[in-house]
Amino acid sequence: MQGAPFTKQPGIQSPCLLHLLIKGGWARYTRPKKEMKKNSFAKVTTIILSLLLVLGIAACATTGSSDNPADTASKKIVVGVNPVPHADILDNAVKAVLAEAGWELEVVVFQDYVLPNTSLEAGELDANYFQTLGYMNVQNQDSGLHLAAVAGVHIEPMGIYSQKYTKLDQLPDGAEIGIPNDPENLERGLNLLVQKGLLTSLGGYGTDPNVTAESLSNDKTANPHGYKITTLEAASLPLSLPDLDAATINGNYALGADLPSTYPALDIEEFDEETSVRRTNFIVVTQGNENTEKTKALVEAIKSDAVKQYIEDHYKGSVIPSFIDPQ
């Protein structure tokens, strides 16, 4: 966090030379106790005291000015983010809400997941906004950080996208559906297909080591429509979408390919309480700063109706509000 601005203590006056000269009298500083033997020395002394007087007047004029830089800095909130959608949400929605309340928001964009936390720990940021609770907790444990989540903001749900169809029920039997090939998102993609009724179950996947996502293509019980399940790297799915009938794509990759604007999701993940907490991106501060004026102002702004409306209107389901408290 930034250092607190200096404030004068009640009853303590600034050591202003002008005040001292007025109280003590100019003569006290210019009248020598003994007669000077050389006029040149007296002239030098007079010049020095005159310069000090000018500087003292300038210092006194500055004291109490409303343009104090420290006062300005105290109304600035510096937040570290990743580019999409975090920076977009802060720049295009939160900043205006904070400005109405008299706060200035500075958004610092990071391209990785490490520096936003180490910069916050070092006091270079007031908060950051890019991570889930699980990631934050691992960083606290493994890297010795002291971070605390204060407010949930959004979830980037996985969606089912297609360039060929506009509704799920238009998918023909035998349609090829791409899903991510990394273990966590592969299971997430299969669960999404089950959730939306494209698969009836996961069959033996997860319990039988011989059952793979691709082998579900031939499981007539779990996959009565005979969809061909194809696993690809998550980041490549948007590029492969023209060659597929549909694909389950993570929200960040869908946003990066501008799919919400060009080919909106046919449907998106639904979340229960447990998965909502696990998938939510939170505002994070350093421990001990959970209830500062800055933190409260940021949380109030980011949970506003204006921000919620922006997320819903702008991202069209690829990002959804999740204004939950950390647990």
List its traits.
327 residues, alpha/beta, D-Maltodextrin-Binding Protein, domain 2, 6-stranded mixed β-sheet, 11 strands, 17% strand
| End-to-end gap | 24 Å
Name the CATH superfamily assignment of the largest domain: Periplasmic binding protein-like II
Helix and strand content put the structural class at alpha/beta
Low-confidence stretches: 1-38, 52-72
Q: What is the domain tally?
A: 3
CATH topology of the largest domain: D-Maltodextrin-Binding Protein, domain 2
- Mean residue pLDDT: 84
How many helical elements? 14
- Estimate what percentage of residues fall within beta strands: 15-25%
Quick take:
This protein is an alpha/beta fold. The chain has 14 helices and eleven strands. 41% of the residues lie in helices and 17% in strands.
Report on the architecture of this protein.
The chain has a six-stranded mixed β-sheet, with helices on both faces. The two termini are 24 Å apart. Mean pLDDT is 84; it is low at 1-38 and 52-72. It has 14 helices and eleven strands. The protein has three domains: 17-62; 70-145 and 289-321, Periplasmic binding protein-like II (D-Maltodextrin-Binding Protein, domain 2, 3-Layer(aba) Sandwich); 159-270, D-Maltodextrin-Binding Protein, domain 2 (3-Layer(aba) Sandwich). Strand 6, helix 8 (183-195) and strand 7 (228-232) form a beta-alpha-beta unit. Helices cover 41% and strands 17% of the residues. It is of the alpha/beta class and 327 residues long. The longest helix has 24 residues, at 39-62. Helix 1 crosses helix 3, helix 5 crosses helix 13 and helix 5 runs antiparallel to helix 14. It has helices at 17-24, 26-30, 39-62, 69-73, 83-100, 115-121, 133-143, 183-195, 237-240, 251-256, 259-262, 273-279, 293-302, 305-315; strands at residues 76-81, 104-109, 127-131, 147-155, 159-161, 176-180, 228-232, 246-249, 267-268, 280-286, 320-321.
